[in-house]
Predict the 3D structure of the following.
Amino acid sequence: MASPLAVYKLTILYMLDRINGPIALSRITEFLLENGYVNFVSLNQTLAEIEESGLVRSETRRDGSFLYMTQEGTETLSFFSGSLSDEIKEQVDEYLREKGMELRNDHYLSADYDRSVSGAWLVHMSVREKNETIIDLTLSVPDEETARQAADSWKEKSQEIYTAVLDKLF
């Protein structure tokens, strides 16, 4: 039987494999803590170890931190996936089904802002589908509060904005 730490690592790799892309660190944390698999200290240890060992890589943006599975992670999961119980796999699959659209939007809709050299605030917003960028929009706004509001509204209004752009262009 695998050690608890190994099970946590495999569970994270399994989640990444099943979603077939990156996953928000907050979603991994939510799943593992709510199902009682791990405590906060063990979770942080697990996350540090799988990143240090090259099984995953992380990316931090304004809207959260995301984990991506590396080739080494894929190989490790294929070699050790039998060590992960069917019960855990079923729970992961159920969680991913329940949170499907939310998980997709976590990664595929992004919005961030920063200050330009000229002093204006630039809001960078995008929608990606698999490896394709569907829309990539950068707006210049006068102040940080407006930039924050635009970035915060993007996840809710991106579809409407995309449709309006298409309507105006075609």
Observations:
- The first strand starts at residue 23 and ends at 24.
